[in-house]
Amino acid sequence: MVVGTPHPQKEVIDSFVERLLDGGNGLVLNEYCQKYPSLRIIFEQKYDIMKALEEAFTDENLGGTEIGEYLIIEEIGRGGMGVVYLALQQSLGRYVALKILPFGFSSDRVSTKRFRTEAQIIARFNHPNIVPVYSMGEERGICYIAMALIPGLSLNKILQSLKCLPVGEWSPTIVRDIICTHPDFTRLNFCDNGTGNLEAIHISRNPSFWSKPYISFALTICSEIADALSYAHRNGMCHGDLKPSNIMLTYSGVPIIVDFGLAKDMRSLKATQSQEFLGTIAYASPEHITRNIVSPASEVWSLGVTMYEMLSPDQPFQSSDVAATVEKILKTDPPLLRGGSKVFPKDAEAIVFKCLEKAPENRYAQAALVKEDINNFLLSKPVMAKPVGKLGRSIKWVKRNRIVAILICTLMILLMIGSFVALNSSMKQYVVEGDHYFAGGKYPEAIQSYESALKILNVPIFSRDTKASVLSGLGDAWGGVGQSEKAISFYKRALEIDVNNVQALAGIGDVYFVGGQYAEAVAWYNKAIILSPEDSEKYYDRGQAYERQGLYREALRDFHKAIQLAPNDQDTRKEISVLLSNMGLLENDQGAILREEGFNETEVESILRLIGH
Amino acid sequence: MATYLQEQNSVALIQAGKEGDSQALNVLFARHHQRILRIVRLRLNPGLRERLKLQSMDIVQEMFLHALKKLQSFQYTGDGSFIHWLSRIVENVIRDQLDYVFAQKRSPEGECSLDQSITESNDKLHLHDVVSREDTSPTQHILKRDIKTAVDELLLELSEADREVIIQHQLEGLTFVEIASYAGKSEDAVRKQFKRSFQKLMALAEDSDVLQELRS
Q1: Would the CB atoms of B7 and A66 count as touching at under 8 Å?
Q2: Claim to verify: residue B170 and residue B82 sit in the same structural domain
Q3: What is the ipTM of this complex?
Q4: Does residue A375 form part of some domain?
């Protein structure tokens, strides 16, 4: 390195510190970490030091401090997006919740501009489930936002308490008790007759609301949250960080969404990898995590996670660390809500799982549809969401894990092929043995071998033809030991599998022939010959059956055909000679007899030549 | 719930204090004493700082109230200016009183002579009634106090000029414009000086084992 040349790393680090001193926040950290990944550790260290110093210069007690026209009384809450104070709006003598945004927020011009624009939109909102915003401002580098004081408790604190109890004990009144006895609520003295000495939002419910079954109670609340989201979406605003800690539930059971639009940029939060981020990311949709997309569909997802948590003692995706949580969100379906219980309504579960579809296009397209479907459920009407089944979950798993699925399938196919090859080899071995025994007249051994082959053939991967062929072999073998009934039953089983099994057809013919039922034998040989017209043996067999019936001309024709197909077959030749002899003919007259029997000249010549004349 | 006086802003409390309302002074003390004392400690020389450490809280409060008697001369222009003014007055009172005590070679615990010079008012103060309660958990509180102590140690390692601009901006809450007008400099010059000073503090913080441990 040339002496005197500034080290490029040092320049980068100095410019990073300069940006931090100008009030840069997590966004700046993220920007530098992405641009100069090798310096990440240094940036994070500088950022941490900056945060520690900022902390060391802030007072724990802002009580008595004036910001704008608000006089801070005391802290009432603390979260990722700042600290909330009970404050007095001095001009109106009204108590408000004053949120002071994190230090550095006001120095980030982009954030401040966005914050102002969004605050203007939110201030125009008029929805019973969205917190009314009174004003916002910036003073001495502090950004603040004044909102209505909500007489209730955040949903995440309610759920924390609720989850200490067995699910069976969850009820609307338990929820109300949790709210009204929680220190965050009682310290503000809201609870006297439901009014207390602080004026704030108050919406009363029908008393029957508190006697609903817990699932209906929770889903009614979710339906109202969906309605508020839908209202905001219609007005062009997404919440950006919907989760139970941003939903207050009043002691009268009304959900109110707070912190609209305050946390849009996941990347800025991600850079800190903090516990706060873990709390936020557990509600973030897959597209929010991977592409930083916040849309009505991603908010339907966050609502789905919130609904899941309200209906189950578990959190669907949260793990011990950010990476594991992200992995679950992107790849895993949460456990079914019904768990081991068959009591949990499948339609309610279907609604939650439709919100938690990984692909945005498979979710409800709008929060309004979630509300509609919840109301369908509450009114016992059919819901749009389809119940979740094992097959559906498997298909979804395959779609998400294509490569793994392909590998598994390939492996299975290979295993199957391997098994098939091994089985096929054993089976063939048995068949060869069986044929060998059969040919040697060892029928019982043949039967044993064929039976063994048949056991293997019961595995459905083998072709029907092979099985039919072995069954026919068994028929032949049983026929060989004189068990004609057993033989026929095997032949028939073969024909059930393969109606065109020639061996079985001819085998039955053989059984009938042996039993002296020549006409039946001819009928079965006919079927065999139709299917196998070039098989000389079948003509020979039928010829014999004809001969036994005295139908010499038919017999002679079959023998003639047989010897044409197999000219060297001495048995057939002999059979023709015996036949002609049995017909009582003199050698010299054989031609004339044949002509009398209707054979034409060519046939007569052929026969005479074949039998040696 | 907040008491009537807690709901008053600083202007109203200062006005009430000027008119002799001792409870208003108590509330002002409760609001500001921790921060003011922190500022004063950082400005005192090491000897006086050690002596101040040995004072009981009651004596400190009396010094504070003695300073608040000078309210008549203060014109409110904002919370930052009030803290700046009050911290300077308290610093002077404490400096004088500590010098006086030690000049008399009195025991640091012997508060009698101090009383004679300060207790022109017979107001009975109820410190524990007015000190606002802490909302943070005990652990968070201790951690935060320790971080503050550690950072104060680092501030004392800086030059007086570096330390002063950080005190004024970060602890007194003065804007760069206000600091510039007190110092007779341009706003830009003050802003640049603050950045340089703060970077030095960051460099010290990076080397501080205590701070690293507390953060982890």
Answers
A1: no
A2: no
A3: 0.75
A4: yes
